[in-house]
Give the backbone structure.
Amino acid sequence: MAEVGTIGVKPIKVKATEVRAIEVKTIAVIGAGTMGRGIAHAAALGGYRTIIEDLLPGALRSAETEIRANLDKAVELGKVTASDADSAFGRLEYAESVEEAAREADLVIEAVPEEMESKIEIFTLLDKICRPTTMLASNTSSLSVTEIASVTYRARKCVGMHFFNPVHKMKLLEVVRALETDDDTLATAVEVGKRMRKEVIVIKESPGFITSRINAMIGNEAFYMLQEGIASAADIDKALKLGLNHPMGPFELVDLVGLDTRLSILEYLHKSLGDKYRPAPLLVQYVKAGRLGRKSGRGVYEYPEVSAVKQNLSS
Ligand SMILES: NC(=O)c1ccc[n+]([C@@H]2O[C@H](COP(=O)([O-])OP(=O)(O)OC[C@H]3O[C@@H](n4cnc5c(N)ncnc54)[C@H](O)[C@@H]3O)[C@@H](O)[C@H]2O)c1
């Protein structure tokens, strides 16, 4: 028997002869934002031909620069050899449309913003243009992969692959089994995750999976505390780092994740799991003000270096 993961107390076991990880050579990544560029980095380093696409050409350019810088840093730290870094960089391709990116892919990983409409739009298009054998994965942090997959004629080939930020450093991959995901697709997602050097856990679909559900709760509570004036953002971060041994404070983390992404997750969890996930009004206000975190130059904290780069790019 092969074990492809564990759900609850029961390992998911299927007869080895029945499970076949499908060979993946080419991966397309749709969306080159915070996550898409990291997923592309890890896929290329895992030996896959990796084609990345974004609506905004500027996002592709900055993804290329950031991936190069992160690979160079990994070489400097002795984590990757210079030749592996160069080979990985050479395996990356940049496409001008979803069609161009996905038509030769064996696996497409979608990393567009956390909105059901956007995911459904992309999956509908992918289902039309991809080969019938192509698997479709979503990097959604919270949404129902079953619902996303339902717009396709290949629900059994759809799966959740939830990576963590920054992808090139974070070890975990949550592989999410949706209602119709078949064993081969699940086994393939696990195999690809391992080749991307991740520790893989398999979970049954549920809003926010494991990590987003717990993390959204902590992060939201931190915003309520800030709003109530209980302590400064820096002290709330310090309390969780030094008192609870979290590697990052909740505000440092939300600035990295993106306040808009966190708000979308909370809105979905609020709708599906109830009032305890109601987004803190202060978080909503920050997003309205355009304070989205590191990526916009300002979130809970300020990032003058990012603002300066953005100004240079637009001038
Ligand atoms: N940010 C995190 O820490 C984190 C962690 C795990 C998972 N996720 C999930 O990853 C997904 C992406 O999040 P992100 O933080 O990278 O968002 P982001 O806003 O940083 O990037 C999204 C990118 O998608 C592009 N895009 C939008 N619509 C598109 C389309 N139709 N076709 C192609 N590209 C399109 C945007 O231009 C942007 O570059 C979300 O589902 C999010 O929940 C995020």
Remarks:
- The chain has two domains: 26-204, 212-299.
- The first helix runs from residue 34 to 45.
- The two ends are 60 Å apart (CA to CA).
- The longest strand covers residues 2-7.
